[in-house]
Structures are given as C-alpha cells and as structure tokens.
Write a structure and sequence with these properties.
Number of strands: 0
Number of helices: 10
Shape: globular
Order of helices and strands: HHHHHHHHHH
Radius of gyration: 20 Å
Distance between the termini: 37 Å
Length: 269
C-alpha cells in the first residue's frame, strides 16, 4: 500500500499559519468593514500581501527540514515541480489550456495533503521564474496552487478507492477546484482595479452584499471562459491519462519508500 508523505508538527503548524494569513490576504475586501481605513490602501495592498512569500518559503524550509521529507521525497518534489513548471507554458494565452493542474491533482492524491501543498507552491514559484511571471501576484498564485494540490490529498477513500471510481472522483474535484483557483485569483486582483471598471470594481465604502455582487459580475465578465477551459482540460486529462499516471506515481513512491527508516545494528560478537 502506498503511504502519503507525512509532514511533522512544525511543518503543519507553519502551513496552518500561512493558510490563515492567506484567507485574510484573499478575503480582506469582505472582512474589513466599510468604515475601515484598509480601503485607503488598495493600491499598496498587493505589495503588503506579497510578504506572504516569506511565510511560503518558511513552509517549504520547515517541511524539508522535517524527517517527513527526506532526500528521496525532495528528489520527487523537484521532479514533479519541474514537470509542472514545464507544462504551464503549454497553451499559455489560450483559453485555459493549462495541463499542469491535472498533474497537481494526481500528485496531491498520491503523496498526501502536506506534500501536495509544498508541491503546489514550489511548482508555481518555478513556473513563474520560467515564464517571467514574477510580481506581487506570485505569492497569491503559490498559495492558491498549494491549496488546490492539498485539497486532492484530503479527498476521502485514499486507501480504499481505486480504479474508475477514483479517477472520476479526481476529475470531479479537478473541475470544481479549477473554478475555485480562478475565483481565488480573481479575488486577489479585483480590489486593485481602481476606476478601470467602476461598475464592477471593489468599492471600499460599500457593504459586503454590494461588493459581493460586484465581484460575481467581475468573475462572470472576465474569467468565466478561462476557468471553464481550465476545468475541462483538467477533467479530460484526468480521465484519459489519470489511471496510468496514478500507477506510475504510486510505483515510484513505493520504490522510494519515503517512510522507511534506516537503522544500524551493532555487529554480533
């Protein structure tokens, strides 16, 4: 049986901290009341929240330092992250053709939520360097991709569900999570539109219902087609290539024996 790569308490605590800060970073337009002075810093916020990158790096460093990610697991992390980064430019600029998402779903499923979170943000960081997509939005992309991959590792039935049922489960998750990723990234950029589109831009003086309506309109008008393309590509690739890739990942994990401990015994006299 393939066992997911486990992370230690320090890694899990750091992951929880990053996720909590991330929720605030993504959702502050709906968390801050209209009377808050946060709205006066809507142009500065991308740079302020880019400080999340420090915490994300801390997650990776803590995870690698823990015994759960030994040399073999780090090697697997590097291979999968490099593959995902190489897949991202394929179809770049073409309505949501992003094959890296299906690889993240399958990897998170096999290797577990902790490893999946680390893999997601490392992959996005590597792909940003590869494509020149470095900017204040990059920490948000890293965090969102980490959640996306971690979610696949949290799906039920990891030890029991196999075959077509598992592939269908992963395809359904990939479809929904692709929209969730797009929505999260919309939320990261939407408050900073300013007066570019006043009827759908964030209004710091409006209440939550009004801004929620504006945000939904913004998503429908700007990214629905892209998110749908990403979701459909993820489903198609998961259904067609998923069974073979799941077997390959599980075989590689068993051979690497991430959980195996090396022990030394004293020679008999």
């Amino acid at each position: 049986m393939t066992r997911a790569v486990r992370l230690g308490p320090r890694s899990l605590l750091t992951l929880a901290l990053v996720s909590a800060v991330g929720v605030v970073a993504f959702g502050w337009p709906f968390l801050a009341p209209p009377t808050s002075r946060v709205g006066t810093h809507t142009q500065d916020a991308p740079w302020l929240f880019a400080g999340l990158l420090v915490l994300l790096v801390a997650v990776v460093a803590a995870a690698i330092a823990e015994s759960g990610l030994g040399p073999k697991a780090v090697a697997m992390l590097g291979v999968l992250a490099a593959t995902g980064a190489a897949l991202r430019p394929i179809g770049a600029g073409t309505a949501g053709i992003e094959p890296m998402f299906f690889l993240m779903v399958l990897s998170g499923r096999v290797l577990g939520p902790g490893f999946g979170f680390v893999l997601g943000n490392v992959t996005m960081f590597a792909s940003a360097l590869l494509t020149g997509g470095v900017g204040p939005w990059m920490p948000f992309q890293m965090l969102a991709m980490g959640w996306f991959t971690m979610g696949a590792g949290l799906l039920p039935g990891a030890d029991r569900t196999r075959g077509r049922a598992e592939v269908r489960l992963l395809a359904a998750y990939g479809f929904l999570a692709a929209f969730a990723y797009g929505t999260a990234m919309n939320m990261a950029g939407w408050p900073f539109m300013g007066a570019l589109a006043s009827n759908i831009a964030f209004d710091p003086h409006a209440g939550v219902p009004a801004n929620l309506a504006r945000f939904v309109t913004y998503c429908l008008a700007t990214s629905l087609g892209w998110d749908l393309g990403r979701a459909l590509v993820t489903v198609v690739l998961t259904l067609t290539l998923g069974p073979a890739l799941l077997r390959a990942l599980r075989r590689a994990t068993r051979r690497a024996a991430f959980e195996a401990q090396v022990t030394f015994e004293a020679p008999e006299r």
